[in-house]
TrEMBL record, chain A:
This is Cytochrome c oxidase subunit 1. It is an enzyme of class 7 (translocase). Cytochrome c oxidase is the component of the respiratory chain that catalyzes the reduction of oxygen to water. Subunits 1-3 form the functional core of the enzyme complex. CO I is the catalytic subunit of the enzyme. Electrons originating in cytochrome c are transferred via the copper A center of subunit 2 and heme A of subunit 1 to the bimetallic center formed by heme A3 and copper B. GO terms for biological process: aerobic respiration; electron transport coupled proton transport; respiratory electron transport chain. It is a multi-pass membrane protein. It is found in: Cell membrane. Pathway: Energy metabolism; oxidative phosphorylation.
Length: 623, 365
């Protein structure tokens, strides 16, 4: 690739700018120059911030959808919103939270942190990185634009065939879903390839694989899962798109197709997806727990191997989502066994975090509280997972609110809690200021109360026989009280999230200024100033151990900043990634015209953009 | 709607169930009331299928509680004992301990094996082939109602599944449109109704569910796989009765009901047979032989209409016939003034609707 970054220094350039947040995140020449700078940026740090901002925006959208769902379910036989709106809301809530919130938030951290952790100046393919972000943003906005047409997707986030066929879903709803997800999937695939390459090729000298920080390790594993799982959902989505737009019959039973095929394809992607969501957070807390225990991670190689093992076994468990499908006792038994096996490395990780804290000197910062919260809450989700890994038990729990409780305990109690820890932990690195600990503690405790009040009762609601994806339930089920508790909890959870967002915004200006290493953490990203200069490291550091800053061997801040006009040369901004992203999105969106040649217009735009991109030099000639 | 108290079954045996106790105590403490849960999966089940699942659930439940206690116990101790103290010593930077790693890996593996063995045993136990003398019922899912066919008895009904107590039943499940899932929690787990697909060997992929109900009563259930706009309103009831009563029900189903001549019901019959109703609905012993909608034979004897949606009264029947979409979004039945499921409005006058309702209600005697 033309734009791969070499780690040598580029030509010298005279400069004398400060390294505060303002200097890193604004461009000389006023507001328009700054906007232009962000749109054309190829800097992994800016792209990381854009990922986080977009994902937080979608978090608020998905959260609002959740609150409307909870209002509708607060009392039995409610008529706050009708069936059709409700079905759109829960479909978009799930789709948004998985694809537009949890995944891109993790990617935001991949972007900002991984190059800093491995002593690199950027990712391997900076312009591809920008393309990945813009494709994600356009896909997410397109998916949500369905609300403007009153045709938001309404067949649930798993979109089981053959309900999604033109016969049973004639509207535009499923079109928005299949196209939006296809676009977003392209983004994930590009990102995964970028991070695999980055982590393999751009590590600083001496940073061997078994010295890599756990977060980088989990990014590496997650990227491999993404690179292999996204093509599976892509196949399923392309089949579905072909069924809908070109009248094929992949999932049409009367014509020789098979709806169960969709379930297999979806879950062969869908279960690895679960680990795509959780492993980054496992990585984050494997950084946070040691830092605030003042002890290295207990059993580092075991935690790494457990992560890799989870990544592999995650491929062999998909049919535990299909115990009610009727695959027969032999298939059921196989997937029971494989699912039980994957519980072992997960449990081992929990014990290693506990052992890391054992004998430490624990500092209860907000980041640490969320990391501890993950250990405590995720365990509940893991254990309810063992319950429905037991296939016959799952025949009762499947598609009931028990499962809703389970996956919120894993995805919110695990993935999102870890991401919150990551925000409090790395915020000073990104902005040069600490997040407010007072607001942080408010956030944490309202989260704990709100989250558990929302989702713990749902275990009972499920065990007492309420299926999921219902817009109403009869009073005679006796579940009004439990549901009301859930709804109250959801609003507390909502307030908690607003406190978090307010803390993010407020601390950017009013937070306590942070030094390069405010937590006395051991990894490389803390060796550079907060925020880092746009080239990250003036001199690429040499690494001699797993916890370089605790051993005092690696580059300190003095060696991280270029002095005397000796600044490394970084790749130039480019408008082609965003334009290419438009072309790719357009190609998919124009499928909705249902005329075979119309999408070719988008393809032509893409081709022109890719061509121009290829001939634009990565490094602008010096003026 | 039917009060929960009328739904029978198993309350006596609850007293022996520790999980039930735990949950009732917790729920009463939280919500200040005792409750009855007609779709509970953790009350003692009223059949062998549910009982097998419940016993397995208890095994798994206590293992997971043990793990939770260990993890939370250690976590609580660590947070209390190892919090940073001013002037405290710098922690020793140990990197791991192989013995401990092997210990908790093996410990986790043993627990997992102890859960897996009874699980696989129950998987095979609950998916056994039905015996020769099992009662065969074909369960066919439709958007958004249930069709039940008894091929040996030559009886068809909808939304209320009548089963004999103590006799094994062999349900054969499939769907006429999209995927549905049959779930009656008090009797056992759910099983999907897939659209018919021919397997490579030429046979049709039909799901089976085999169990024995061991207690008379009415058991609530509903569709458990999202199947479109009215998924939430696709309820069903299993009415289990001793074998002789079940046989009586079969006989009644096969005996046509004639309304008294000159009655409103007789007038309703005339309207029904002359209107588009018969394009979709069947009533045994008459010329109504439509198969797209629920079979209405002996409709008056059912407890609910609209798949568990409304109490079965003449007023509700009339309201339903007038405008079914008001009660069930997306319903594929036309009303008097609005189309439904691709069919034009029926155009019945309110007098005609009243008559049809009277006729259908009379089909229960």
């Amino acid at each position: 690739m033309a734009d791969a970054i070499a780690s040598e220094r580029g030509p010298q350039r005279a400069h004398a700018e400060g390294h505060g947040a303002a200097a890193l995140y604004t461009d000389p020449g006023g507001l328009w120059a700054t906007i232009r700078g962000w749109i054309t940026t190829v800097d992994h740090k800016r792209i990381g911030i854009m990922y986080a901002s977009a994902a937080l925006f979608f978090l608020l959208v998905g959260g609002l959808e959740a609150l409307l769902i909870r209002v509708q379910l607060a009392v039995p036989e409610n008529d706050f919103i009708g069936a059709e709106t409700y079905n759109q809301l829960f479909t978009m809530h799930g789709t948004t939270m998985i694809f537009l919130v949890a995944m891109p938030l993790a990617v935001a951290f991949f972007n900002y942190i991984v190059p800093l952790q491995i002593g690199a100046r950027d990712v391997a393919f900076p312009r591809l990185n920008a393309l990945s972000f813009w494709v994600f943003l356009f896909g997410g906005l397109f998916l949500n634009s369905s609300w403007l047409f009153g045709a938001a997707p309404n067949t649930s986030w798993v979109g089981y065939a053959n309900l999604t066929s033109v016969q049973y879903s004639p509207g535009l709803n499923v079109d928005f879903w299949v196209i939006g997800l296809s676009i977003v999937g392209i983004s994930s695939l590009i990102g995964a390839i970028n991070f695999i390459t980055t982590i393999i090729n751009l590590r600083a000298p001496g940073l061997t694989l078994m010295r890599m920080p756990l977060f980088t390790w989990m990014t590496f594993v997650t990227s491999w899962i993404l690179a292999t799982a996204i093509p599976v959902i892509a196949v399923a989505l392309i089949f579905l798109a072909a069924d809908r737009f070109f009248a094929t019959n992949f999932f049409v039973p009367g014509a020789g197709g098979d709806p169960v095929l969709w379930q297999h394809l979806f879950w062969i992607f869908g279960h690895p997806e679960v680990y795509i969501l959780i492993l980054p957070s496992f990585g984050i807390i494997s950084e946070v727990v040691p830092t605030f225990s003042r002890k290295p991670l207990f059993g580092y190689p075991i935690v790494v191997y457990a992560g890799i093992l989870i990544g592999f076994i995650g491929w062999g468990v998909w049919s535990h989502h299909m115990f009610t499908t009727g695959l027969g006792p032999i298939a059921d038994s196989f997937f029971v066994a494989s699912t039980m096996i994957i519980a072992i490395p997960t449990g081992v990780k929990i014990f290693n975090w506990l052992a890391t804290m054992w004998g430490g000197a624990l500092r209860f910062t907000t980041a640490m509280l969320f990391a501890i919260g993950l250990v405590a809450i995720f365990t509940i989700g893991g254990l309810s997972g063992i319950m429905h890994a037991s296939a016959p038990v799952d025949l009762q729990q499947h598609d009931s609110y028990f499962v809703v409780a389970h996956f919120h305990y894993t995805i919110v109690g695990g993935a999102v809690t870890g991401l919150f820890a990551g925000f409090y932990y790395w915020y000073p690195k990104v902005t040069g200021r600490l997040m407010s600990e007072t607001l942080g503690k408010w956030h944490f405790w309202t989260f704990i109360v709100g989250f558990n009040l929302t989702f713990f009762p749902q275990h009972f609601v499920g065990l007492f026989g309420m299926p999921r994806r219902v817009f109403t339930y009869p009073a005679e089920l006796g579940l009004g009280g439990w549901n009301m508790a859930s709804t109250i909890g959801a609003f507390i959870f909502g307030v908690s999230t607003l406190i978090f967002v307010w803390n993010l915004i407020r601390s950017a200006r009013r937070g306590t200024p942070a030094a390069a290493n405010p937590w006395d953490a051991p990894t490389l990203e803390w060796s550079v100033p907060s925020p880092p200069p746009h080239y990250n490291f003036a001199e690429i550091p040499e690494v001699e151990s797993r916890d370089p800053l605790w051993k005092g061997a690696a580059a300190g801040p003095d060696r991280a900043v270029a002095t005397g006009g000796d600044e490394p040369h970084m790749p130039s901004p480019s408008a082609w990634p965003i334009l290419t992203a438009l072309g790719i999105s357009l190609t998919w969106i124009l499928l909705m015209a249902r005329i075979w040649w119309v999408p070719l217009i988008g393809l032509a735009v893409t081709a022109v953009c890719v061509y121009s991109w290829a001939f634009q030099p990565a490094f602008r000639a010096e003026s | 709607m039917i009060g929960a108290g009328e739904l029978a079954g198993g309350r006596g045996r609850r007293l022996l169930n520790p999980i039930y106790y735990t949950i009732v105590i917790v729920s009463s403490a939280l919500l200040g009331c005792g409750q009855d849960y007609p779709q509970s999966t953790i009350d003692p089940a009223s059949g062998d299928f549910g009982a097998a699942i419940h016993s397995l659930y208890q095994t798994v439940f206590w293992w997971t509680m043990l793990i939770l206690a260990v993890v939370w116990g250690v976590l609580g101790w660590v947070l209390f004992r190892y919090r940073a103290r001013p002037g405290g010593p710098e922690p020793k930077r140990i990197h791991g301990h192989l013995g401990l790693e092997i210990g908790w890996t093996v410990g986790a593996a043993i627990i997992v094996v102890l859960i897996t063995i009874p699980t696989i045993h129950t998987v095979f136990q609950t998916q056994r082939e039905a015996g020769e003398d099992a009662l065969v019922v074909e369960v066919i899912g439709h958007q958004w109602w249930w069709e039940f066919r008894y091929p040996e008895q030559d009886v068809v009904t909808a939304n209320e599944l009548h089963l004999p107590v103590g006799r094994q039943v062999d349900l054969r499940l499939w769907s006429a449109d999209v995927i549905h899932s049959f779930w009656v929690p008090r009797l056992g787990g759910k099983r999907d109704l897939n659209p018919l697909v021919r397997k490579p060997d030429g046979s049709l992929a039909i799901n089976r569910l085999t169990f024995t109900v061991d207690e008379a009563g009415t058991f609530m259930g509903q569709c458990a796989e999202f199947c479109g706009p009215a998924h939430s309103l696709m309820g069903l009831r299993v009415i289990a009765a001793p074998e002789p009563e079940f046989e009586e029900w079969v006989e009644r189903m096969k005996t046509p009901v004639e309304p008294d001549s000159g009655s409103l019901a007789a007038r309703g019959r005339e309207v029904f047979m002359g209107a588009t109703c018969v394009a979709c609905h069947a009533i045994a012993g008459t010329n109504a032989r439509g198969r797209l909608g629920p079979d209405l034979t002996r409709l008056g004897a059912r407890t609910t209409i609209g798949a568990g949606l409304l109490e079965n009264t003449r007023e509700n029947l009339a309201a339903w016939i007038t405008a079914p979409a008001e009660f069930k979004p997306g319903v594929k039945m036309p009303g008097v003034a609005e189309e439904g499921g691709g069919f034009p409005p029926t155009g019945l006058s309110s007098e005609q609707v009243e008559a049809v309702a009277a006729y259908l209600a009379s089909l229960g005697r």
